[in-house]
């Protein structure tokens, strides 16, 4: 088949039109891609940054929580230590007050016992002296404790009624038991022996007097 000038010219026009259209489409595509690509890159970049920020925030939050937990535990430990220290201090203060109060009460009963002793009311004197002994003992007042033991021994020497000794026998035995509790290094051994001796002597004397 022969191609005429007209046909050849038309073919060239068709080819030119095809390439022109194709080129225009390519330009349009490139234009679109040129506009969209930065947007796609930015969106992807924002997405990755957001993920990294979320991960970082999560890690920071966990560290802060752990730090707060550690701080809280440390604060609690310090508070516990402070509370224990305060409790200990309060207990010591209360104990000291209680000790001093007992010692003071011991003095009151001691004086009362001395008044009865002077009146030769040995039954009442012994009762008050034993009260004084208990308070001196609980008040850790060992100086007055020694004095009250002497007062009790003097009463034993002066008692003229066996019933008086019988009434205070339990207190006498309890006194000896208490003295053994604080007989460290044997420091109350002589006092214990002396008061036992005086009680037994008084008891024997009064029993003989009844015969």
Record keyword descriptors for this entry.
211 residues, mainly alpha, 0% strand, rod-shaped, disordered N terminus
Spans where pLDDT lies below 50 across 5 or more residues = 1-6
Shape: rod-shaped
C-alpha Rg, in Å?
A: 54 Å
Count of DSSP helices? 5
Intertermini distance: 176 Å
Give the percentage of residues in beta strands. Answer: under 5%
Short description:
The chain is mainly alpha-helical. It has helices spanning 5-118, 122-138, 142-158, 162-181, 189-210. It has a domain at 96-210.
Protein model, in words:
The chain has 211 residues and is mainly α. The protein has a domain at 96-210. It is built from 5 helices and no strands. The protein has helices at residues 5-118, 122-138, 142-158, 162-181, 189-210. α1 (5-118) packs antiparallel against α2 (122-138). The longest helix has 114 residues, at 5-118. The radius of gyration is 54 Å and the shape is rod-shaped. The chain starts with a helix and ends with a helix. 16% of the residues are buried. Mean pLDDT is 78; it is low at 1-6.
How are the SSEs placed, and which strands pair?
Layout: H1 5-118, H2 122-138, H3 142-158, H4 162-181, H5 189-210
């Amino acid at each position: 088949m022969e191609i005429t000038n007209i046909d050849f010219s038309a073919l060239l026009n068709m080819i030119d039109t095809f390439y022109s259209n194709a080129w225009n489409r390519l330009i349009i595509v490139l234009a679109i891609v040129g506009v969209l690509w930065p947007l796609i890159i930015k969106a992807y970049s924002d997405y990755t940054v957001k993920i990294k920020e979320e991960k970082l925030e999560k890690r920071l939050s966990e560290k802060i929580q752990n730090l707060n937990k550690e701080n809280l535990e440390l604060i609690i430990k310090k508070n516990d230590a402070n509370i224990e220290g305060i409790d200990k201090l309060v207990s010591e203060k209360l104990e000291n007050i209680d000790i001093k109060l007992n010692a003071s009460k011991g003095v009151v009963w001691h004086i009362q016992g001395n008044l009865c002793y002077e009146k030769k009311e040995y039954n009442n004197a012994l009762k008050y002296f034993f009260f004084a002994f208990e308070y001196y003992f609980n008040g850790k007042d060992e100086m007055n404790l020694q004095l009250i033991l002497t007062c009790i021994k003097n009463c034993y020497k002066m008692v003229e009624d066996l019933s008086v000794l019988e009434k205070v026998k339990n207190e006498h035995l309890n006194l000896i038991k208490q003295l053994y509790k604080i007989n460290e290094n044997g420091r109350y051994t002589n006092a214990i022996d002396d008061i036992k001796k005086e009680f037994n002597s008084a008891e024997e004397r009064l029993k003989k007097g009844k015969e």
